[in-house]
Amino acid sequence: MHVEALAIVCAVRAHGEHGAIVRTLTPDDGLLAGYVRGGRSRRLKPVLVPGNLVRADYRARTEEQLPALTVELSESRAGMMSEALPALAIEWVTALTATVLPEAQPYPRLYAALDGVLGAVTAAPAARGWAVALVRYELLLLSELGFGLDLTACVAGGANDDLAYVSPKSGGSVSRSEGEPYRERLLALPAFLVEGGAGEWGDILAGFRLTGHFLERDLLHGRAIDILAARERLVDRLKRAVGQG
Known about the structure:
alpha+beta, 5-stranded antiparallel sheet, 4-stranded mixed sheet, 7 helices
Protein backbone atom coordinates (compact mmCIF):
# COMPACT_ATOMS: atom_id res chain seq x y z
CA MET A 1 0.00 0.00 0.00
CA HIS A 2 1.38 3.39 -1.01
CA VAL A 3 -0.60 6.62 -1.01
CA GLU A 4 0.91 10.05 -1.55
CA ALA A 5 -1.41 13.05 -1.48
CA LEU A 6 -2.15 16.48 -0.15
CA ALA A 7 -4.14 15.75 2.98
CA ILE A 8 -5.94 17.54 5.80
CA VAL A 9 -4.90 16.57 9.32
CA CYS A 10 -8.07 15.57 11.20
CA ALA A 11 -6.94 13.77 14.36
CA VAL A 12 -3.71 13.13 16.23
CA ARG A 13 -3.31 10.59 19.06
CA ALA A 14 -0.15 9.92 21.01
CA HIS A 15 1.25 6.43 20.52
CA GLY A 16 4.22 5.10 22.46
CA GLU A 17 6.83 7.40 23.90
CA HIS A 18 7.45 9.62 20.89
CA GLY A 19 5.11 8.63 18.06
CA ALA A 20 1.58 9.52 17.02
CA ILE A 21 -1.27 7.92 15.11
CA VAL A 22 -2.57 10.51 12.69
CA ARG A 23 -5.73 10.50 10.61
CA THR A 24 -5.87 12.67 7.54
CA LEU A 25 -8.50 13.21 4.88
CA THR A 26 -7.20 12.72 1.35
CA PRO A 27 -9.04 13.67 -1.87
CA ASP A 28 -8.99 10.25 -3.58
CA ASP A 29 -8.53 7.73 -0.75
CA GLY A 30 -10.65 9.28 1.97
CA LEU A 31 -9.77 9.08 5.64
CA LEU A 32 -6.48 7.28 6.29
CA ALA A 33 -4.63 6.48 9.52
CA GLY A 34 -0.88 6.15 9.81
CA TYR A 35 1.89 6.02 12.37
CA VAL A 36 4.23 9.01 12.43
CA ARG A 37 7.59 8.24 14.01
CA GLY A 38 8.59 11.15 16.20
CA GLY A 39 5.15 12.66 15.80
CA ARG A 40 5.35 14.27 19.24
CA SER A 41 8.73 15.86 18.60
CA ARG A 42 9.34 19.60 18.61
CA ARG A 43 9.82 19.49 14.84
CA LEU A 44 6.59 17.67 13.98
CA LYS A 45 4.13 18.90 16.59
CA PRO A 46 3.52 22.21 14.73
CA VAL A 47 2.95 20.21 11.54
CA LEU A 48 0.53 17.69 13.05
CA VAL A 49 -2.12 20.21 14.03
CA PRO A 50 -5.74 19.44 13.06
CA GLY A 51 -6.70 21.60 10.11
CA ASN A 52 -3.21 21.79 8.62
CA LEU A 53 -2.68 20.81 5.00
CA VAL A 54 0.23 18.40 4.59
CA ARG A 55 1.94 16.37 1.93
CA ALA A 56 1.28 12.88 3.28
CA ASP A 57 3.12 9.72 2.27
CA TYR A 58 1.55 6.46 3.53
CA ARG A 59 3.44 3.19 3.10
CA ALA A 60 2.60 -0.33 4.30
CA ARG A 61 3.70 -3.79 3.19
CA THR A 62 0.22 -5.28 3.58
CA GLU A 63 -3.34 -3.96 3.60
CA GLU A 64 -3.76 -5.10 7.23
CA GLN A 65 -0.69 -3.25 8.54
CA LEU A 66 -0.96 0.26 9.99
CA PRO A 67 0.92 2.35 7.44
CA ALA A 68 3.99 4.36 8.27
CA LEU A 69 3.24 8.00 7.56
CA THR A 70 5.63 10.82 6.77
CA VAL A 71 4.41 14.39 6.43
CA GLU A 72 5.61 17.73 5.11
CA LEU A 73 3.75 20.92 5.88
CA SER A 74 1.98 22.46 2.90
CA GLU A 75 -0.24 25.06 4.58
CA SER A 76 -0.41 25.84 8.28
CA ARG A 77 -3.63 26.88 9.98
CA ALA A 78 -2.09 26.48 13.43
CA GLY A 79 -2.01 30.24 13.91
CA MET A 80 -5.79 30.23 14.28
CA MET A 81 -5.53 28.03 17.38
CA SER A 82 -4.73 31.11 19.45
CA GLU A 83 -8.12 32.64 18.60
CA ALA A 84 -11.06 31.19 20.50
CA LEU A 85 -13.80 30.95 17.86
CA PRO A 86 -11.62 29.78 14.94
CA ALA A 87 -9.92 27.23 17.23
CA LEU A 88 -13.29 25.82 18.32
CA ALA A 89 -14.49 25.64 14.71
CA ILE A 90 -11.37 23.80 13.54
CA GLU A 91 -11.49 21.45 16.54
CA TRP A 92 -15.11 20.57 15.86
CA VAL A 93 -15.06 20.14 12.08
CA THR A 94 -11.89 18.01 12.03
CA ALA A 95 -13.02 15.83 14.96
CA LEU A 96 -16.41 15.30 13.33
CA THR A 97 -14.77 14.24 10.08
CA ALA A 98 -12.37 11.84 11.79
CA THR A 99 -15.17 10.31 13.86
CA VAL A 100 -17.91 9.63 11.33
CA LEU A 101 -16.14 8.82 8.07
CA PRO A 102 -15.27 5.19 7.34
CA GLU A 103 -11.60 4.72 6.54
CA ALA A 104 -10.25 4.35 3.02
CA GLN A 105 -13.50 5.39 1.31
CA PRO A 106 -13.18 8.30 -1.11
CA TYR A 107 -15.26 11.41 -0.46
CA PRO A 108 -13.82 14.01 -2.87
CA ARG A 109 -16.71 16.44 -2.31
CA LEU A 110 -16.17 16.34 1.43
CA TYR A 111 -12.43 16.87 1.01
CA ALA A 112 -13.03 19.95 -1.13
CA ALA A 113 -15.70 21.26 1.23
CA LEU A 114 -13.58 20.71 4.34
CA ASP A 115 -10.64 22.48 2.74
CA GLY A 116 -13.00 25.31 1.85
CA VAL A 117 -14.34 25.61 5.41
CA LEU A 118 -10.83 25.64 6.88
CA GLY A 119 -9.72 28.20 4.32
CA ALA A 120 -12.70 30.38 5.22
CA VAL A 121 -11.94 30.11 8.95
CA THR A 122 -8.38 31.19 8.22
CA ALA A 123 -9.23 34.04 5.87
CA ALA A 124 -12.50 35.50 7.14
CA PRO A 125 -12.19 38.55 9.41
CA ALA A 126 -15.27 37.51 11.44
CA ALA A 127 -17.11 34.31 12.31
CA ARG A 128 -20.10 35.20 10.14
CA GLY A 129 -17.80 34.74 7.16
CA TRP A 130 -17.21 31.03 7.88
CA ALA A 131 -20.17 29.92 10.00
CA VAL A 132 -22.42 29.54 6.94
CA ALA A 133 -19.79 27.32 5.27
CA LEU A 134 -19.59 25.18 8.40
CA VAL A 135 -23.37 24.60 8.47
CA ARG A 136 -23.28 23.66 4.79
CA TYR A 137 -20.42 21.25 5.46
CA GLU A 138 -22.43 19.49 8.16
CA LEU A 139 -25.36 19.22 5.75
CA LEU A 140 -23.13 17.78 3.02
CA LEU A 141 -21.62 15.29 5.46
CA LEU A 142 -25.08 14.00 6.35
CA SER A 143 -25.89 13.65 2.65
CA GLU A 144 -22.64 11.88 1.74
CA LEU A 145 -23.19 9.31 4.51
CA GLY A 146 -26.75 8.54 3.45
CA PHE A 147 -28.71 10.80 5.80
CA GLY A 148 -29.37 13.73 3.50
CA LEU A 149 -32.25 16.11 4.09
CA ASP A 150 -34.79 16.82 1.36
CA LEU A 151 -34.89 20.58 1.04
CA THR A 152 -36.37 20.70 -2.47
CA ALA A 153 -40.15 20.46 -1.91
CA CYS A 154 -42.73 20.43 0.85
CA VAL A 155 -43.33 16.92 2.15
CA ALA A 156 -46.90 17.88 3.06
CA GLY A 157 -48.12 19.62 -0.06
CA GLY A 158 -45.43 19.18 -2.72
CA ALA A 159 -44.84 22.89 -3.28
CA ASN A 160 -41.25 24.03 -3.75
CA ASP A 161 -41.65 27.68 -2.78
CA ASP A 162 -41.63 29.41 0.62
CA LEU A 163 -40.01 26.45 2.36
CA ALA A 164 -39.60 27.45 6.00
CA TYR A 165 -39.40 24.32 8.18
CA VAL A 166 -37.96 20.81 8.32
CA SER A 167 -39.60 17.78 9.88
CA PRO A 168 -37.36 16.47 12.69
CA LYS A 169 -38.54 12.94 11.92
CA SER A 170 -38.36 12.66 8.14
CA GLY A 171 -35.79 15.36 7.34
CA GLY A 172 -38.14 16.71 4.67
CA SER A 173 -38.85 20.40 4.18
CA VAL A 174 -42.24 21.95 4.89
CA SER A 175 -43.72 25.11 3.40
CA ARG A 176 -44.62 28.03 5.64
CA SER A 177 -48.38 27.63 5.05
CA GLU A 178 -48.38 23.89 5.77
CA GLY A 179 -46.02 24.10 8.72
CA GLU A 180 -47.26 27.19 10.55
CA PRO A 181 -49.83 25.33 12.70
CA TYR A 182 -47.09 22.90 13.81
CA ARG A 183 -44.15 25.28 14.01
CA GLU A 184 -43.33 24.38 17.62
CA ARG A 185 -42.71 20.78 16.55
CA LEU A 186 -40.68 21.63 13.45
CA LEU A 187 -37.14 22.85 12.88
CA ALA A 188 -36.61 26.21 11.20
CA LEU A 189 -35.14 26.06 7.70
CA PRO A 190 -32.73 28.98 7.13
CA ALA A 191 -33.16 30.75 3.81
CA PHE A 192 -29.44 30.46 2.94
CA LEU A 193 -29.72 26.66 2.81
CA VAL A 194 -32.40 26.95 0.12
CA GLU A 195 -31.44 30.10 -1.75
CA GLY A 196 -27.66 30.14 -1.22
CA GLY A 197 -25.67 33.19 -0.29
CA ALA A 198 -24.85 34.55 3.14
CA GLY A 199 -27.00 34.37 6.24
CA GLU A 200 -27.90 36.58 9.17
CA TRP A 201 -26.96 35.35 12.64
CA GLY A 202 -30.49 34.23 13.49
CA ASP A 203 -30.52 32.03 10.39
CA ILE A 204 -26.99 30.75 11.04
CA LEU A 205 -27.86 29.63 14.57
CA ALA A 206 -31.06 28.03 13.24
CA GLY A 207 -28.87 26.19 10.73
CA PHE A 208 -26.71 24.82 13.53
CA ARG A 209 -29.84 23.65 15.39
CA LEU A 210 -31.08 21.94 12.23
CA THR A 211 -27.90 20.07 11.33
CA GLY A 212 -27.13 19.37 15.00
CA HIS A 213 -30.42 17.50 15.43
CA PHE A 214 -29.68 15.11 12.57
CA LEU A 215 -25.97 14.73 13.32
CA GLU A 216 -26.73 13.66 16.88
CA ARG A 217 -29.62 11.40 15.89
CA ASP A 218 -28.14 9.70 12.83
CA LEU A 219 -24.35 9.79 13.15
CA LEU A 220 -23.21 10.57 16.69
CA HIS A 221 -25.82 9.22 19.09
CA GLY A 222 -24.30 7.22 21.91
CA ARG A 223 -20.74 7.12 20.61
CA ALA A 224 -19.29 10.60 20.45
CA ILE A 225 -20.06 12.52 23.62
CA ASP A 226 -16.69 14.28 23.58
CA ILE A 227 -17.02 15.74 20.11
CA LEU A 228 -20.64 16.74 20.70
CA ALA A 229 -19.32 18.70 23.67
CA ALA A 230 -16.88 20.39 21.28
CA ARG A 231 -19.81 21.40 19.07
CA GLU A 232 -21.76 22.73 22.04
CA ARG A 233 -18.78 24.87 23.07
CA LEU A 234 -18.58 26.31 19.56
CA VAL A 235 -22.30 27.09 19.28
CA ASP A 236 -22.45 28.56 22.80
CA ARG A 237 -19.46 30.79 22.00
CA LEU A 238 -21.12 31.93 18.76
CA LYS A 239 -24.31 32.76 20.65
CA ARG A 240 -22.40 34.83 23.19
CA ALA A 241 -20.46 36.57 20.44
CA VAL A 242 -23.69 37.78 18.78
CA GLY A 243 -25.53 38.46 22.04
CA GLN A 244 -27.99 35.57 21.83
CA GLY A 245 -26.52 33.42 24.61
